[in-house]
Amino acid sequence: MHDTLLANKLGALWTTIGQAVEAGFGSLSPSSAAALITLRHRQKLTATELGRILDLTQPASARLVAKLEAEGHVARQKPASGKEIGLRLTPKGRRLAEDLQRQRLAACDRLLAALTPADRRLLDRLLSALLAAPVTNRAYARHVCRFCDHGVCDGPDCPIGCAATALEHSGEADARGP
User: Fold this and answer.
1) DSSP E strand boundaries for 44-95
2) What is the Cα 170 distance to its own chain's centre?
3) In this predicted model, what pLDDT tens digit does every residue of 12-49 receive, in sequence order?
4) Per-residue pLDDT tens over the stretch 115-125
5) What are phi and psi of 120, to 5 degrees?
6) Please, what is the angle between helix 47-54 and helix 58-70, to 10°?
7) Rounded Cα–Cα distance for residues 143 and 152 (Å)
């Protein structure tokens, strides 16, 4: 097998996974789903911080937050100090975020069902290497992990977060990224 064929297969897998996961979003856009899942794990982000993680412009982030707020999924939380207003999920938004996460993981589990347990262990090692390799900073890591269930993949189990931490400790993390 040559690398071009392998790269082509990897691209096809990306499309397959994307379609399987996005099917669970229903009428939500990928940005809306990512916002809800991100806020499930990172309460009290500002609209600006959320926009950075989702790689949205400030106006696009403001529109997204306004839409999610109008739908009753997100509420603005007034700060005790004079700082920016944070965002939090409403109970309705939390339930939807949890459902989106369950559907995302179920779609991926259906794809993994084709593999033996030994193949799954090998894939886990390979994915960890592939996911850690392009990490340049914490912002990149947060963007890539915007759909992740941080209760499952956190700390030493997260190759992306570990790579970002290693770069920060080495002083090699760059300032670029969403």
Assistant:
1) 74-77, 86-89
2) 25
3) 999 999 999 999 899 999 999 999 999 999 878 999 99
4) 999 999 999 99
5) -65, -40
6) 110
7) 17
